[in-house]
Model the fold of this input.
Amino acid sequence: MCLSSASPPSPRRAVAGLFGGPGLWARRTFERGMGRESGTGRESEIIVEAKHVRRVRYYPLSSEIQAITSAAFAIFSLTSSTLLTLTLVMLQSRSFPLPRTPFPVLEELSLYRTWIDNYNYGLVPSLDYRLPTLRRLHLGSSAFSQEQVKALLGMSPQLTDLRFSEVENDVDLYAALAGLVRGLKASEDRRDEEAVDSGSGSYPSLETILIQPRPLPHVFGWTDASQYVDSLRSFQKLKDDSLEVEVTYLAPRESGLRILDEEAKEFWIDRLGEGQGCWDTGSKVDLEELLERANNVPRSMNRMMVG
Done:
């Protein structure tokens, strides 16, 4: 968790905390699997090995989840009234990670999910949950569902900037965003589920949508190739349909290990230093070039035969 708040006498106060980051769970999981405990002569080896398994989704003990959640909400209780920015690598929990009372002055929110399960409903805010001053929203991992994306958009009526990073595995961004880029502006009091589902909530200030696709695989199976290219084509249609919102595509990162908590903190620190953070468009890419690259990725013959 990383956050900054407005707090006298200084105009901004920054606080950074790490609660249940992927590295912690990786290390504990590896130690349990090897039958080792911290403090042994092999601890350094354990830490090195843990870095190689950080991409795995971990399921910590319920007591650990409770401790992490309690610590996070204790910080929220102290800072919520002045909180300006929040970056949260979402807790390994099946409950919505933000407090029941919304932040009254929050301007920027970045959320990352570290694991996928089949019980997403608790991670969806209620229809009347609002972040009335939120201007920038970044969803930064592939573990979000379509329902979560719609609900998170619906709670933020004053958005100016959106970013989606590698969310397209389980999210149809065209379906979620088509109404926004076409300029379908509903009245501000339209809060029903239909408005959220159609993506036609009230976003009179929305200016920019940034989309970073997932990395191109080095080798495609037939299904992989079709899904990836279809996603890029839907992104192109989203840009073509845009009337009032600028849609920009960022180059996918190189394939390999992505450590969410480190990426999230790096963006957050850059923003505190008046940098662009995750809103930097220096890596923007032409979607036609990306489509050409995707079409040139070698296909796996074995998987093509299965398909």
Q: What stands out?
A: The beta strands are 2-7, 10-16, 83-89, 108-112, 136-139, 161-165, 208-212, 246-249. The chain has a mean pLDDT of 72.
